[in-house]
UniProtKB/TrEMBL annotation:
<comment type="function">
    <text>GTPase that associates with the 50S ribosomal subunit and may have a role during protein synthesis or ribosome biogenesis.</text>
</comment>
<dbReference type="InterPro" id="IPR042108">
    <property type="entry name" value="GTPase_HflX_N_sf"/>
</dbReference>
<dbReference type="InterPro" id="IPR045498">
    <property type="entry name" value="HflX_C"/>
</dbReference>
<keyword id="KW-0342">GTP-binding</keyword>
<feature type="domain" description="Hflx-type G">
    <location>
        <begin position="208"/>
        <end position="378"/>
    </location>
</feature>
<comment type="similarity">
    <text>Belongs to the TRAFAC class OBG-HflX-like GTPase superfamily. HflX GTPase family.</text>
</comment>
<dbReference type="Pfam" id="PF16360">
    <property type="entry name" value="GTP-bdg_M"/>
</dbReference>
<keyword id="KW-0547">Nucleotide-binding</keyword>
<keyword id="KW-0460">Magnesium</keyword>
<dbReference type="Pfam" id="PF13167">
    <property type="entry name" value="GTP-bdg_N"/>
</dbReference>
<dbReference type="InterPro" id="IPR016496">
    <property type="entry name" value="GTPase_HflX"/>
</dbReference>
<dbReference type="InterPro" id="IPR006073">
    <property type="entry name" value="GTP-bd"/>
</dbReference>
<dbReference type="Pfam" id="PF19275">
    <property type="entry name" value="HflX_C"/>
</dbReference>
<dbReference type="InterPro" id="IPR027417">
    <property type="entry name" value="P-loop_NTPase"/>
</dbReference>
<dbReference type="InterPro" id="IPR030394">
    <property type="entry name" value="G_HFLX_dom"/>
</dbReference>
<protein>
    <recommendedName>
        <fullName>GTPase HflX</fullName>
    </recommendedName>
</protein>
<comment type="subunit">
    <text>Monomer. Associates with the 50S ribosomal subunit.</text>
</comment>
Amino acid sequence: MTNKSVDRGVPVQQALVLHPVRPGGDASGRHPQTRLEEAMGLAEALDIEVAEAMIVPLRKTMPATLFGKGKVEELRLVCEAQELDVAVVDDQLTPVQQRNLEKAWGVKVIDRTGLILEIFARRARTKEGRLQVELARLNYEKSRLVRTWTHLERQRGGFGVMGGPGETQIETDRRLLAEKIGKLKKELKEVRRTRTLHRSARKKTPTPTIALVGYTNAGKSTLFNRLTDSAVVAQDMLFATLDPTLREVKLPGGRPAILSDTVGFISDLPHELVEAFRATLEEVQEADVVLHVRDIASPDSNAQARDVEAVLADLEVTEAGGRNLLEVWNKADLVPEADRDDLDGSARRNGAAVLSAVTGEGCDSLLRRLAALIDDEPEIALTLGSADGQALAWLYRHGRITGRHDGQDGGVELRAKLSSEALGRFERQFPTLLSSVDGSEEPSED
């Protein structure tokens, strides 16, 4: 008999984790063992104890159960012998397959999409995050109402809000679900409007934005904490971060920037979640620089990168769109010393930044590269008289002073960098003061 762990008096569910290998193998090129370990990590992220895990090759996929009849019986015996509570199938199951496997094995069956949705539901903290997860969950459940009810054959008469005569229970449930989905979409539309207003307000200040993206558990939050001196939750766990977090980071030269930590991507990310989190991912669309953080020590680093790039392409975040994209090869401290020369050489050829967010190695170099990427503002040279205090205060408030010399007569010679928008506003407000927009010139001696 299996001895189940207890946490605070609550029995921990025991799980069988299965990674089916479809005919032809994994299209992404990942090794089945790596995919199985990732599925185990997803289960453990829900505090499910993995009692048994196995790779299951499929000669062909069965419409009713995914697995063949013999394998279904074999796995039933495993569930029975170990008294398991849950079977996690690292694949997308149809509602029929899910229902049939639950009947055959006598345990709760959850597929990859359901598992990820459940993790998101537990981790979302903000109102926006909870709305997005709930919308994704309802869209997922919409096709699974058939397994939610056992009385679907029953019809009932009705009137008013309860439905017309002869409306079946499943029709009622679908209608109520559609109404709830519609309500959530309206609430998220309002969230998106509010977020757009906040972005518009940020655009009025000369503060560039930098977004961190990457595969889940690539170390984005650890890097975020390192660069901003923050304490965002950063754990060796899949989807430790769900809700976007924004903090200020100081770049070399003193210029501030806004750094945004976003939800991690994953292979076969449920379509429902991509759609639901589109409002959140708009932060990435609007960023001046996008840092693609990769776990370079992972054997699946290249495949993970392709998954992230596919989502970025779906969001139309590309270099062709005028954005700066920079790959950050994280976890360099986990790369064997014998492989470091090859890693550094490959990074130079690909224009990537190699670092370790844990040790801090390479982080200063990354900040310098970021400063170079976004520090393309025009520099002006000005000579202000003692009566031009209002203009001087305006420049300190809206720009960045890169050089200053105070004259004996109370005048000031200075160099300042302004965003194109701020420069236009300064020129309109103080048209007689602008003397140069050439960064190579020294302040006027006149």
